[in-house]
Design goal:
Layout lengths: L9 E3 L5 E11 L4 E9 L1 H6 L14 E5 L3 E4 L3 E3 L17
Parallel strand pairs: 1-6
Antiparallel strand pairs: 1-2, 2-3, 3-4, 5-6
Length: 97
Amino acid sequence: MLVRKIDGKQVVSSDARTVGEVSGAYVDLETWKINNLAVDLNTETMELFGFKKPSIPFVGTVSICMPIDEVKVAGDVITLNTKYEELPNLPIDQTNA
């Protein structure tokens, strides 16, 4: 799959709950492998992580770097290995998002 084809794909947890959507991918330039997906979280998932909903409608979202090892299947949607309630326990990098 071309990297650009994953942009905008819905991301769901292993228990089929919507997490957000892919907004990009991070590539390790030494190995040329994708190591993280940039995922824009939906409002419910932002609250699960403890982030506040933006006060201005349609402005801003929270993006996280989802480790590529957490991806179980990439097809019509990106399915994660992790259940929804366990997502905050993942080693998520917010600094590169």
